[in-house]
Amino acid sequence: MARLLFLLGGILLSFSPPAEAAAQYSIIPEPSRTELKQETATTLQLLSDREAPSLRTDAYRLTVTPQGAHLASGGKEGRIYGLATLRQLRDQLAEQPEGIPCGVITDEPRYPWRGLMVDPARHFIPVKDLEKFVDLMAYYKFNKLHLHLTDNQGWRLPVPGYPKLKSVASRRAESFGDGIPHEGMYTKQELKGLVEYCAKRGIEVIPEIDMPGHNQALHAAYPEFFCFPKPDINVRTTAGNSRELVCPQKPEVWEFYAAVFKELKDIFPSGTVHLGGDEAPTELWGKCPLCREARTKAGMKDEQEQMRAFFAKTTALLAKNGQKPQFWYEGNAGIYHPGETVYAWRQNQACQSIEKARKAKLDLIMASNEYCYLDFPQIQGQHNWGWMKTTTLQKCYELDPAFGKPENEAGHIRGVHAPIWAERLPDLDHLLYRAYPRACAIAEAGWSLMNARSWENFRRKLADHRQFILKRFNYDMERTRENEPAFPWKNKK
Q: Of 108, 129, 151, 330, which residue is the catalytic one?
């Protein structure tokens, strides 16, 4: 990762690990079970690599002996995770050439979904930079990369037959008054290449096409898709949202989304499409003559019923391609349908989202912003632009996705997800600075059972991992208040 960004300063990694650390493994996320032996290993040559039908497909068993290592895995996923653990142990051995303990690691993830979200809609991320980001994800056993491809500030997915997505929607005049034009659009081939790159590392790519709101960039390109077209509207140059939603009563809207979903099907084999669905004010639907007529004809009492119908029609379109939707959860279970997946993201609503989603028969992914939003500052005094709360590494580590609830109340929780929104993160340097080392804590929250986790042990391991990452990726995870890369905007508040 050649000079993979600026120095990323030291939030808690400035202390030395205790002396007894040499007699332990430094594996993140913490394995389910570790049995240490008295012997010492000075080589980690892989002596055997076999399938073990008795293990789950995402489980593995790694046996470290004085002669080398033996890997048994239940399937392709388990093998990838076992090799990731072996990679970390080799990095530990490089730091401790006198040897590391022999032992047996029996491991599998607590949750099947462990994701990070990046936001090229706000600031375009070249594929080569995404690959560097993915390499770090794989090192910590994340298995979902969520691409937020569209928003008010930019549209990054090419769609055949809609050339203005590139010529208009992918470009904006500036960002926060900096006077510098910003643009970017992936090619189909680039995205397919990224999917392949991720698949080799056990990572599924989930595209997001935000709707019906968060669409000012689309409005600039195709105003005829909206209730009240504004031919002079421009791609948004600041943060925030706009009131305009696509008009569900216009046939050209559905023709467009059918084309979008077909393109997604051709590029992303996962079959999962995130549809956003959040922060969609329906006041213009309330005023739109076409929407009002449709509500009256269908006997709908309000715009929320219209929103439910909008997503039902969208989901039916996806189903024709074998795709299924996900949504940012707005707490209104009435607009979702049983069996769908929602992300709990709003602050202080995680626990109630667990209960509401269970009653509505929805699967839930935990992305509560007070634990999981990695664009928030991680040290008090770092830039928060007037509204972000500081989310420390320890706060991230405290996340229990089930919040202590028993299996019969939390069995619908699929895992954890950490968004890294990029309104104020202009490049990979800034993206990685905010993501790490907190992403390591999120990785452990999604993988490790609560009784295997320890904040003190995690701090010890992270001190080791700062050296692992520095040597393997030429990237420093140290964090201090002062060492964040400089931001380009004069007004930092």
A: 151
